[in-house]
């Protein structure tokens, strides 16, 4: 476990190309693997999570070439996947685990799925239960709720499923299984979660029906290989949007950032808090919108964040908490229980680590309350193996009066291996 020391800076200035979107990179590899023909991906995120997806699909018999952000997937259709002779190791990646289970649910062979200590604590019944209802045979710890999981797919039937949580991973797993199941599969969710699966499946030639919070697919569909251009990840951009807003004398431009509406809760929050944020060069590629984002040092107001916006910014809450420590007044984050089942319990880790740095923050059952502005005073914190906690602490370090020492910093490689290089470029 290595440590990193971050010190206060006088300004952040310049332009950064944000690395590829993690959600879209996973899907490009997985959909390429089940499609017929050669899928090429540009702008792929070479972070550990997406590399876990590549490694699992290689074990399932798919040839995949990867060189930095360029990937070629030699898909052979659904039947081109074959039984792996090894365990499928998903590392730290919830997205790999849940979407891959959806694909394996209709494959007539045995697979074993395992991950790291964090994955072993994350609930999988949210996908294994509906996939079992469709006909897949799944077993694992806690009656199939935790890894290691064993799955034998086969003849599955479509279902109509109302998910208790707004989760793109749940929605995607069921829709992927539905593509090779008998009849129609319908998923309904309480709020709209990210819709990259729907958009990319359409680009791969799949027909699906969308009606508000409901998505349906008819079984028996094949995918046709594509060229995928991956936009920059707004969840990675979020760290620099916040840094630009709270570090004095700053102006940062982030290029080619994905601004799919199911992901832009962070932009809505920044604007509502009063941040000086501008969007330019908007364009659409592969059904996904992108833009350049420019942020300047801003005077900020605390706000309430709750309800339908939560799934649109769920991964950004650790860095929004840092932002709120520097805003005038109180920020209340509600309806965010899902934070408890991420790489760490992010309510606990955000609150405990920011308290160490001098923030006035308290945990609630479904979120947190932050009173600002508070000068952050530095100290020793840890990522607890959670990339987003590590990066949030580093940005807090840029505005702290004394240095911030962050333990277990390599976790950041999961989603943003060049994070510290990018900070350095802006100083
Ligand atoms: O589908 C995806 O790519 C993701 C969905 C979200 O998880 P949930 O589906 O659990 O909400 C998000 O937190 C995760 O980082 C990526
Ligand atoms: C929750 C996250 O990812 P995953 O669920 O894929 O592990 C994340 O990136 O913050």
Automatic annotation (TrEMBL):
Its main location: cytoplasm. The keyword Amino-acid biosynthesis applies. Gene3D superfamilies: Enolpyruvate transferase domain (3.65.10.10). Pathway: Metabolic intermediate biosynthesis; chorismate biosynthesis; chorismate from D-erythrose 4-phosphate and phosphoenolpyruvate: step 6/7. Residues 7-422 form the Enolpyruvate transferase domain. 3-phosphoshikimate binds at residues 22-23, 27, 167, 169, 315, 342. Keywords: Amino-acid biosynthesis, Aromatic amino acid biosynthesis, Cytoplasm, Transferase. GO terms for molecular function: 3-phosphoshikimate 1-carboxyvinyltransferase activity. InterPro entries: Enolpyruvate_Tfrase_dom, Enolpyruvate_Tfrase_sf, EPSP_synthase, EPSP_synthase_CS, RNA3'P_cycl/enolpyr_Trfase_a/b. Its EC number is 2.5.1.19. It catalyses: 3-phosphoshikimate + phosphoenolpyruvate = 5-O-(1-carboxyvinyl)-3-phosphoshikimate + phosphate. Phosphoenolpyruvate binds at residues 22, 94, 122, 169, 346, 388. GO terms for cellular component: cytoplasm. It is an enzyme of class 2 (transferase). It holds the Pfam family EPSP_synthase. The active site is at 315 (proton acceptor). It is found in: Cytoplasm. HAMAP family: EPSP_synth. Monomer. Belongs to the EPSP synthase family. Catalyzes the transfer of the enolpyruvyl moiety of phosphoenolpyruvate (PEP) to the 5-hydroxyl of shikimate-3-phosphate (S3P) to produce enolpyruvyl shikimate-3-phosphate and inorganic phosphate. This is 3-phosphoshikimate 1-carboxyvinyltransferase.
